[in-house]
Amino acid sequence: MNELFLKQMKELLGDEYEAYLALLERDEIRGFRINTLKCTPEVFFEHTSWKKQATPFAYNGYYYLEDNAPGRTPAWHAGLAYMQEPSASAAVTVLQPGPGMNILDLCAAPGSKTTQIAEYMQSQGFLVANEINAQRASVLKENVERHGITNCMVISAKPEDVADAFEGFFDQVLCDAPCSGEGMMRKEEAASAQWTPELVAHCAAVQKTVLAAAYRCLRPGGTLVYSTCTLNTQENEENIAWFLTEYPDMHTESCGVDFGRAAFEYGSGTSLARRIYPMDGGEGHFICRMRKDGDVPAVYPGLLHSAAIPGEVLKAYCDIFADDYPYYYFYKNQFYGGSAPFVQAGRCRLIRHQVHLGEWNGKRFEPSYAAFAANNHPARRQIELNDEDTMRYLHGETISVQTDKGYVGVCWKGHVLGGGRSDGTMIKNRYPKGYRNR
Fold first, then answer.
1. Residue ranges of the domains in the chain?
2. Does domain 380-438 have CATH number 2.60.120.10?
3. Cross-strand pairs, 426
4. Where are the strands (E) in 194-279, listed by range?
5. Beta strand pairing status for 102-105 and 126-130?
6. Distance (Å, rounded) from C-alpha 235 to C-alpha 284?
7. Is 286 helix (H, G, I), strand (E, B) or coil?
8. Is 348 tagged catalytic?
9. Running along the chain, 438 residues long, what does each successive block of 10 average in pLDDT?
10. What is the pTM for the complete model shown?
11. Hey, which of 162, 198, 277, 381 has its CA 20 to 30 A from 231?
């Protein structure tokens, strides 16, 4: 373990330092959330045998008490659960999103908090998830699609470009800022090896620029939650104190939770924030809730103008899927549906705008994986697989089964895994190659 880091923690924790050291010798804490967009906890545990214990950090969060990795299981592939370090779910619990809101997850990959926000929104309102790193943004998109979210735009942009595109638009902004990762020390050896005081100072400086962009995105009257998975005060309380001085129309609020412990007071009410240490049941997190003065409606960005949707596309989609969307968008033969209007994203690189339904090649409509996975938009024809065929499907194999010709939703215990195309006796696998078990 990094000696400089341990010196910092001894000064920070005082009498609790020895308890912290003892916990560092134990295995990391793992957890998961049940995706309440797709199932209830009762249904999930009826279909799985995961050993678990409820966490205090999220209403649908659990400690994962197995030794294996669940990422190859049908429940995970069907988007019924999301693996997440337990205390990382605390930030969204503090944010308290709701249906009908416009919400931004400014530093979103890999999607832990984006998917959790979507669960609270219940497919109502508009969610923007941004990740500056293009490769990580691709992972974010995958997790959003698997979760079945129908009201989320995924973008990849600098925070200042997001602010330019969406200034004054959001009711809530989650700023889970890039940090030095001191709460990852038990999970990742690299976090310990790379830690230096210089890294902390660098992260604190970057966080200031991210916070400045988050402020611009927030409408007056809106809520901003700042969080990190690090433990020092420089990236946490000291940055909040700087931010509140820089933006005097922002004020701290109670987090409204009893997990963790009060943060340190560095002025402007920073003690209202919450700290979570391994002694509190998580790997480590800092969370601060703030509100902007005033009450001004959102400044709505411009809408995207859809090309005319070919009648063959709409007919083909409606032949395959039982539910339609309140909003559609068609561009360069790509067909999209959404629970919210299709808004412009300025200079931000658009990775996904709500649900990519499929592609029109001029002769035939090819539905996408996302269309099959989307919550509450079921395929008209569905096929239920047994456990053996389910694992074969997740490996990308063709499935021998008698069914009507055409596209079908492939299901495990009533939950859609993805799509396929049947010739009457065989289902050609349409599960994306990059998502398959290897």
1. 380-438
2. no
3. 400
4. 218-228, 250-253, 261-262, 274-276
5. parallel
6. 13
7. strand
8. no
9. 88 95 89 97 95 96 92 96 96 98 98 98 97 97 97 98 98 97 80 88 98 98 98 98 98 98 96 97 96 95 96 96 95 97 97 97 96 95 96 96 94 97 96 94
10. 0.97
11. 162
